[in-house]
Write a structure and sequence with these properties.
Length: about 350
């Protein structure tokens, strides 16, 4: 059955993927910490908002197609790109060493090790987190408070244990446990969030957005000051858990409220294609390209600060534009493949 897309969720995804791309550029530490305080928790909350159960075999098949297939495909493409770089560098003997590590890494996905999933960690993590949420929903059925309560207890306990034992688990399971807190929140609070964000009263939403933005920014700033670090979900670095949760929830909810004011085909299209942009943008991130743009901008404006801002904006816009254009080629291929695998179902 075809599900109706919710506009503010697509807009929030568009903002989120823009922050993901921006966060992978060279940024001032304060801005980097602010973005990393919430940009990935935001995606887990949004995934929770659209989460729904169905027969497990169908659920597993759909998640494998939409999450694991792109993960494996683009991981192999990234490996192929690195092999080409090795060949260009005239060091073919290194290819076998790289392949022996990178192929197992795709299926082991053990962060903080040589078998890390790398920049694509989010996909195995989301896959595992959704399986865990599925189990909780089936166990507690309509008791969403219990679903979130257990998820929060498990996730926070896992993060607390990490402070003492500094462990990593295969397929990003350790990160998935903490991410489950945000995923379960989105699932448990979807009706209330949808109702509040889509309500006609703009003053209420603006007021709530301002308060949440202040609370979230304050939590992120205190986190950086107290723990001398920020949330880095990709490597299981949770910093101060209390401030991490305040920053992540406050800023994520603020962005979702802002998204309620945003409409338009651009936001909608980017929101529908965030996964593809996430997978493709690492291929376009090269320091050499950024440095050329940076030096060129400085020459044009005669100011290092303005040159840096211009270069960052140009590279960010170029990456987003190329990814969006490339999605026009990628989407038809995936739709045809989906029809072959799900003959009885219509495309979502």
């Amino acid at each position: 059955m075809k599900s109706k897309r919710i506009e503010y969720i697509d807009s929030a995804k568009a903002i989120g993927i823009g922050l993901v791309v921006l966060g992978h550029l060279t940024l001032p530490e304060a801005l980097h910490n602010w973005i990393y305080a919430f940009h990935m928790p935001l995606f887990f909350i949004l995934s929770g908002l659209t989460f729904r159960t169905e027969p497990f075999s169908k659920f597993l098949k759909k998640r494998a197609f939409s999450i694991l297939l792109p993960y494996v495909l683009f991981s192999l493409l990234m490996l192929a790109k690195d092999i080409v770089k090795i060949l260009i560098g005239s060091n073919p003997s290194a290819i076998l060493r790289v392949v022996k590590i990178r192929i197992p890494a795709i299926f082991i996905a053990l962060q903080n090790s040589r078998y890390s999933a790398g920049i694509y960690w989010f996909l195995p993590c989301l896959f595992v987190a959704e399986l865990l949420l599925y189990a909780l929903v089936k166990r507690f059925k309509d008791n969403k408070a219990a679903v979130f309560g257990v998820a929060a207890a498990v996730g926070i306990s896992g993060a607390a244990l990490d402070h003492f034992f500094d462990y990593s688990l295969p397929f990003c399971l350790d990160v998935a446990l903490f991410s489950l807190v945000f995923l379960a929140f989105g699932y448990a609070a979807k009706e209330k969030l949808n109702g509040f964000i889509q309500q006609p009263s703009k003053p209420k939403r603006l007021c709530a957005c301002t308060v949440l933005l202040a609370i979230g920014t304050g939590g992120a700033a205190l986190n950086a000051r107290v723990s001398k670090s920020s949330l880095e979900l990709s490597v299981g670095e949770y910093a101060n858990i209390a401030f991490t949760l305040i920053g992540a929830f406050g800023l994520s909810l603020a962005v979702m409220l802002i998204s309620g004011f945003l409409r338009g085909k651009v936001f909608s299209y980017i929101g529908k294609n965030t996964l593809f942009i996430y997978m493709l943008h690492p291929f376009l991130l090269h320091d050499s390209v950024f440095n050329v743009a940076y030096k060129t901008a400085i020459k044009l404006v005669h100011s290092p600060l303005i040159g840096y801002i211009v270069a960052t904006a140009v590279i960010w816009a170029a990456i987003m534009f190329i990814c969006v254009c490339a999605s026009f080629l990628y989407n038809p291929v995936m739709k045809k493949l989906k029809k072959l695998l799900f003959k009885e179902e219509k495309d979502d």
